[in-house]
Design goal:
Layout: H1 9-61, H2 78-98, H3 105-128, H4 130-137, H5 146-169
Helix pairs in contact: 2-3, 3-5
Length: 173
C-alpha cells in the first residue's frame, strides 16, 4: 500500500500502528543483539586478562640470564641519540597537530630537541638504574648470573650518565 494513497483516516492509522509495531520489534531485536555483543566482549576481555596473567606468572617463574637482557651500547652517545630521535619525532608530530608553521619554528625545534634529549635521558636512567632494575627484574635473575648482570647494569647506567655529560658539554651529537 502506497503511504500517500489511503482511502480513509482509519487505514492511515492502521498503517502507522503497523509501522510502529515493526519498529518496536526491530528496536527490541537490536537491543537483544547489543546485550549479546556486550556479554561476548566482557567474556573475551576476561579471557584475555586471564591469559595475560597466566603469561605474567610464567614469566615470573622463569629465570633471566645475562644473555636475555637487551643491553644498549656502552661508552657512546648513540643510545641516547637514538632515544632522543624517537622522542623528537613524537614531539614534532604533536607540534604539527597543534599549530601551523611560524617564524619561531627553528627556536621551537631546538627547544623541542632539547626536551626530547632530556626525556630520553630520563627514560634511559629509569630503565637502567641499578636499584630500579633490581627491583623490577631481581626476582627473575638467575642466581648464577645475578652479580654479573647487576654489574653490567651498573656499567650501562654509568655509560648513560657519561653520554649525557658529553651531550651537555656539546662535544657529541
Amino acid at each position: 500500500m502506497d503511504p500517500h494513497s489511503y482511502d480513509s483516516e482509519e487505514e492511515r492509522f492502521k498503517a502507522r500502528c503497523q509501522a510502529a509495531r515493526e519498529g518496536a520489534a526491530v528496536r527490541a531485536e537490536a537491543a537483544a543483539q547489543a546485550e549479546l555483543l556486550a556479554a561476548f566482549r566482557g567474556r573475551r576481555q576476561m579471557l584475555q586478562q586471564m591469559q595475560e596473567e597466566a603469561l605474567r606468572d610464567k614469566i615470573r617463574q622463569q629465570h633471566l640470564l645475562g644473555r636475555d637482557v637487551p643491553w644498549p651500547p656502552l661508552g657512546s652517545t648513540e643510545y641516547l641519540a637514538g632515544l632522543s630521535a624517537l622522542e623528537q619525532q613524537v614531539a614534532e608530530q604533536q607540534q604539527q597537530e597543534r599549530q601551523p608553521d611560524t617564524k619561531q619554528q627553528e627556536k621551537e625545534q631546538r627547544s623541542a630537541w632539547q626536551r626530547a634529549q632530556r626525556r630520553a635521558y630520563a627514560r634511559a636512567c629509569l630503565r637502567w638504574h641499578p636499584d630500579k632494575f633490581e627491583a623490577r627484574w631481581g626476582r627473575q635473575l638467575a642466581a648464577a648470573d645475578r652479580e654479573a648482570v647487576l654489574a653490567r647494569v651498573q656499567e650501562v647506567s654509568q655509560g648513560i650518565n657519561a653520554a649525557w655529560e658529553q651531550l651537555q658539554r656539546g662535544t657529541a651529537c
